Amino acid sequence: MLVEPQIAELTARSVMIDAPAYAETIDAMEPVTEIDETVDRIRGWLSKNLEKKVNLTEVASCMQVSERTLIRHFKKKLGITPRAYLHNMRIEFAKRMLRETNLRIGKVAERIGYSDI
User: What pLDDT, on the 0 to 100 scale, is given for residue 25?
Assistant: First the structure.
């Protein structure tokens, strides 16, 4: 027969073992916020416009938000600025193109918006 201290210990262990799975479930249940939607729209727009010379004013205008709001939402959600995100996307795309195609570096640079290299 289990005594109260043993029951308490078993219950505590069970809670500790299940806590990470429970936390993941809670995170997955978090509602999508306006910030999430805005950042997702911005990310989509940036990925479709890798080859263009993108400026913050244009992106903010397309997303119907101010430049300050755009930067703030992006930093809050992803921890980096939209410019840094775009740069990272371009670098990853360039690496993939260099691996998977026979294009020269100059051509790859043009395709990702760095035509003045």
Answer: 52
- C-alpha distance across the termini of the chain, in Å: 77
Distance, CA of 83 to CA of 81 (rounded, Å): 5
- The CB-based long-range contact list for 107-116 (8 Å cut-off, 24+ gap) reads 110/51, 111/50, 111/51, 112/50, 112/51, 113/50, 113/51, 113/52, 113/53, 113/54, 114/90
Domain locations along the chain? 32-43+52-112
Residue 113 contacts residue 50 (beta carbons within 8 Å): yes
Helices within 1-117 (DSSP H only): 4-28, 34-48, 56-63, 67-78, 82-100, 105-111
Report whether pLDDT(106) > 80: yes
Instruction: Name the more confident of 25 and 100.
Output: 100
Is there a contact between 26 and 65 (Cβ–Cβ < 8 Å)?
no
Could you tell me what percent of the chain has a pLDDT over 90? Answer: 6
